[in-house]
UniProtKB/TrEMBL annotation:
<feature type="transmembrane region" description="Helical">
    <location>
        <begin position="6"/>
        <end position="25"/>
    </location>
</feature>
<dbReference type="InterPro" id="IPR008620">
    <property type="entry name" value="FixH"/>
</dbReference>
<dbReference type="Pfam" id="PF05751">
    <property type="entry name" value="FixH"/>
</dbReference>
<protein>
    <submittedName>
        <fullName>FixH family protein</fullName>
    </submittedName>
</protein>
<keyword id="KW-1133">Transmembrane helix</keyword>
<keyword id="KW-0812">Transmembrane</keyword>
<keyword id="KW-0472">Membrane</keyword>
């Protein structure tokens, strides 16, 4: 049987479509490729984005900054010197982009001058740290990415 150029083009297009459809079906049905949103309440968090911008601006106005250090006991997060031993309310949220089951948050206690995240809770790899606190009804926000 002799094939002309029109038949060859049609066969090539059909083979290409079959190739693409194979990968689309494989990626959508295989559970190892499941992708989640960054947060469950993605659109509600988007509406609060201006508040986060204002809180980051408040942090940038301070003379000292938040420091994050890896120690032998864990991850040491130290708030700016203006807030030591003062009545602040807030939390530290550690977000693991590769596995949402490892995400956790810790409330900020004012008894210590720093917050220590135990090493047992941290798995090696990339972490996003979000420190949010309020002092005298003024919000402050610190975001950082680390590799632990």
């Amino acid at each position: 049987m002799k094939l002309n150029w029109g038949t060859g083009i049609v066969i090539t297009i059909i083979a290409f479509i079959a190739f693409i459809m194979y990968f689309v079906i494989t990626m959508s049905t295989d559970h190892t490729y499941s992708h989640d949103l960054v947060t469950e309440k993605y659109y509600q968090k988007e509406l609060q984005y201006q508040e986060e911008i204002d809180a980051e601006k408040n942090l940038n106005k301070l003379t000292s900054k938040v420091t994050v250090q890896r120690t032998d006991k864990g991850l040491k997060i130290e708030l700016p010197k203006e807030f030591k031993n003062k009545n602040i309310e807030g939390k530290v949220f550690l977000y693991r982009p590769s596995n949402k089951q490892l995400d956790f948050d810790i409330p900020i206690s004012t008894s210590n001058t720093y917050l220590l995240v135990p090493e047992q809770r941290l798995v090696d790899g990339r972490w996003n740290i979000i420190v949010f606190w309020t002092y005298k009804n003024k919000p402050y926000l610190f975001k950082n990415e680390i590799v632990y």
